[in-house]
Design goal:
Distance between the termini: 97 Å
Strand content: 15-25%
Largest sheet: 3 strands, antiparallel
Structural class: alpha+beta
Number of helices: 4
Radius of gyration: 41 Å
Shape: elongated
Strand order of the largest sheet: 1-2-3
Length: about 180
């Protein structure tokens, strides 16, 4: 039998579902009044009536006793410590060393270092640390209609200009605007 998974509580009895499909009944040994003594057969909480009918849970003291019993028998979740501390640190070191590394490359580098880990775990830690880079989208430049260059028919019809930079032997910068 495994540990109980869930409980359905009524005033008369407690049904435990063990997760396998079996149900067991635990009767609470509390009388109708706080000063009433529990009497009865072999099962705690039965009143000695035929068929072992359960006692009612009436009154504040009886309810408190039921709550105490439930708190004593309930199973609470105990959080476990984080298993990914070392892996998170190694991921941050690798991502800091090479900024262009993605989750796949970090996974391969970890495997080369001898760390055996699932690639999905590395991907999850990579996203949690917000290490993913946005892909740059190329600027869409509309294609213009290409036209061939026209030959000039006379002088001063087409001009070209450009800036030319150079340095002298002493290190001074020479800037020239050339016009053709």
């Amino acid at each position: 039998m495994g540990s109980p998974k869930r409980a359905t509580i009524s005033c008369e009895q407690i049904w435990w579902h063990d997760g396998v499909g079996r149900q067991t009944v635990a009767r609470i040994g509390i009388g109708e009044y706080p000063d009433q003594e529990v009497t009865g057969g072999g099962v705690a909480g039965t009143s000695g009536r035929p068929g072992g009918a359960p006692n009612k849970v009436v009154g504040a003291l009886a309810r408190r006793e039921v709550v105490r019993w439930l708190r004593a028998t309930s199973v609470r979740y105990q959080p476990v410590s984080d298993w990914n501390v070392e892996l998170r640190a190694a991921t941050l070191v690798l991502a800091g060393r090479r900024r262009q590394y993605g989750a796949g490359m970090i996974y391969l580098k970890l495997r080369q270092q001898g760390v055996w880990v699932n690639h999905k775990r590395v991907e999850r830690l990579y996203v949690e640390a917000q290490l993913q880079l946005r892909r740059r989208t190329r600027k869409k430049v509309p294609m213009g209609v290409r036209q061939p260059l026209v030959r000039p028919e006379s002088a001063n019809q087409v001009w070209s200009m450009d800036f030319v930079f150079d340095r002298s032997a002493e290190g001074r910068v020479i800037k020239c605007l050339t016009i053709v």
